[in-house]
Amino acid sequence: MNLLINFLEVACTNIAQETFYNTKQSQTEQLLTLHTQLLLSDRPYYRLMPFFPINDRNKTLILRGLLSTGKARIVQDEVLEWEIIKSIVEEIPISRLLRFFVEEIASNNQVFGTNSLNNARVRRLGKYLWHRANAYQVIKYHHKYKIIIRHCRLNPHHCQSEEKKELQKWLFGKLKKPKQVKYCELLRHRLLAKCGNIHSLMKLPLDVAEGIALSRFQMSSEAFAKAYAKQGKSTRKEVLRTRAKNHDSIAINFGNYDLLELIRYAQTHQQDWSEIYPHIQRKARQLAINLSLPKTLALVIDNSFSMKGSKERENYPIAFVEAITRICLATDSEIKLWFTKKNNPEFGPFKTGGATDLRMPLTEAIMSHPDAILILSDGYENQSAGSIAQILNTTAVKQSGITFFQINPVAATEAKGATRSLSSEIKLIPIADIKQFPLAALINHAKMNISCLTDYLNKIDTAIKLGDFKTAKALGKFQVIATEEKQLQLTGVT
């Protein structure tokens, strides 16, 4: 059962990407080893993991694990696992799902000991993805859908609609002129835009429209951004990305974005801080409503240079730490902050720099005599004079009655396959998303009594076998919690 707890901890944080201290290869190897071990040792529990708020990277790896092992031994399990596979697909963003299919199924990447997959389940999944796709998605991700159709050998005659048949013909170059399109209006606009119709250009997905605008219409990036902002249909993230590239081109409603998105944007666009800050405060208050913290809590914040993160996840670690900090500040608890590098949260987003020396801020936090201390750090110290483990092992600290916690915002695991902790004296809260707080509490309970986790998993499993996936998902997201388990929802760090 330690494997089960360890898997959940890592599945919340590790996304198999490079960090400041770890290579992408080492991260991927550790993650795949853990997946393989749980898949082979306890498949029934392994397939329930996606119902918890683990990250999307691990959900896709579980999806691949269930696809790569062929048919289940029992026909009933085969039917059940297909329903689980569909429920996983519904939880993963379409862009990530398509990238996963193309890069890890239709390619030669070696995952779970296989070079590629082309079994009945994979072909069934490909058909399912194609039938769920709408015209907007097909035009936006046309290269990936073409690979899926080819890999799964999907016949146009099997399409459920005339619109989908036209889209498939277009993907493979059998439909090229606007007048040939009879059913798919968006496809007609795609072909008209290519012929020089600027009105049709504004009907297309932003990425597709921008490519045509720059090549066919010879528009500048800034001119296109202004035109598309007025007439186009951008997604939330596309609007933010366009604003980032062309700051004066479009207006934006920052209230449409979540706390972490706002903080990450502010990290690189501090000129918008005065406009963003009220929304950050409001979002933090909303997330703080159901969070129960000790009466007095000290936050020791590592904002050293390593917290800036890797190129793949630049500014994510420090933005996540800032999000947790602002949520804590929005509670009724008395919160005091100590940084490794001086910072004023009111005047801008957290800044990074310098070495990781947690000893001084931790010592000052201990001397303030709080009920608990929460350390927000990636777990690496680079001070030769000593470490915080030495401070925590002193008799005075052990007799102080202070409880110590750590949140590691960096998606990394060590050689032992566990999230890095600063000291064995600290209770680690393995989360990389605010929604994972209740799961972290459940994991901490499970370390003392594993039955609380297995009982929870059995409830999810029972709901699935009854075909009640709505309840199963609600349980996994802690929206349905029995009275005796209510404390799990309210105690993120207590």
How would you describe the overall organization of this protein?
This protein is mainly alpha-helical and 494 residues long. Helices cover 52% and strands 5% of the residues. The chain is built from 25 helices and five strands. The chain has a five-stranded parallel sheet, with helices on both faces. Helix 18 (316-329) links the parallel strand 1 (296-301) and strand 2. The longest helix has 18 residues, at 24-41. The chain is globular, with a radius of gyration of 25 Å. The two termini are 23 Å apart.
Q: How many beta strands in the DSSP annotation?
A: 5
State the helix count: 25
Order of helical and strand elements = HHHHHHHHHHHHHHHHHEHEHEHHEEHHHH
User: What is the CA-based Rg, rounded?
Assistant: 25 Å
Mean pLDDT: 82
Summed up, what is this model?
With 494 residues, the protein is mainly alpha-helical. Helix content is 52%, strand content 5%. The chain folds into three domains: 2-182; 299-435; 448-490, no CATH class.
Topology, element by element:
Layout lengths: L1 H12 L10 H18 L1 H4 L9 H13 L6 H17 L2 H12 L14 H13 L2 H6 L1 H11 L9 H10 L13 H10 L3 H4 L4 H10 L5 H11 L4 H10 L13 H10 L4 H16 L7 E6 L14 H14 L4 E6 L19 H9 L4 E5 L11 H5 L2 H4 L4 E5 L19 E3 L7 H12 L2 H15 L3 H8 L9 H5 L4
Parallel strand pairs: 1-2, 1-3, 3-4, 4-5
